[in-house]
Amino acid sequence: MQRVASKFGRFSALFRERPLVANMVTYPTLYVAAEFTQQTVLMSLDESRRKLGYDWKIMLRYMVFATTVSAPFLNYWYRYLDRVIPSRGTKEAIQKALTDQAVSSSIILAVFYPAMSAMEGKEDIFAELKAKFVPTYKLSCCFWIPAQCINFFLVPPHLRVVTVGICSFAWVNILCIMKRMTVKAREEDA
């Protein structure tokens, strides 16, 4: 048990001393792990997918997005949020969670779909954003507001991004499902 505590202490120290670097390693790992999990589940359910094997290009796109967008943005965003809304209790935790949902979730989703579409080489990189932003944002509210209330109320500031990263493992699985959903052309676009 002491070994685990010692390793956790070193892990925690890394996030205090080098938060950006630690988050830029942890966050992409969690994103890729979520996509890997998705592909594993899909292959177990579908023989034709199993024959194709893992799609490493998709995992690479998730890694690029998490490394270049999610981890750095969230690292600085949470530091800023801690300055403007200091943690004092339940009221501030709820205020932070709602602010985080309104600002960071909106920004991350608004960048996610076009960035992934651009990396996929799609012609209209905003088509998925238009079709999926609102339903994804609604799911995100149901998932992230409770998760962030807990995060802001119970978790020390230097571990908040990694806590979000761990929650992101579950969330990115949801996001992977949303990303895989087919975009139907709207009547006015057709």
Automatic annotation (TrEMBL):
- The answer to whether UniProt assigns keyword RNA-binding to this entry is no
What keywords does the record list, in alphabetical order?
Membrane, Transmembrane, Transmembrane helix
Q: Which spans are transmembrane here?
A: 58-78, 98-116, 161-178
How the protein sits in the membrane?
Multi-pass membrane protein
Superkingdom to which the source organism belongs: Eukaryota
GO cellular component terms, alphabetically, are: membrane; mitochondrion
The answer to whether keyword Cell membrane applies is: no
Where can this protein be found?
Membrane
Please name the InterPro entries in this protein's record: Mpv17_PMP22 (IPR007248)
What Pfam families would the database entry show? Mpv17_PMP22 (PF04117)
The entry's family comment says: Belongs to the peroxisomal membrane protein PXMP2/4 family.
UniProt-recorded name of the protein: Mpv17-like protein
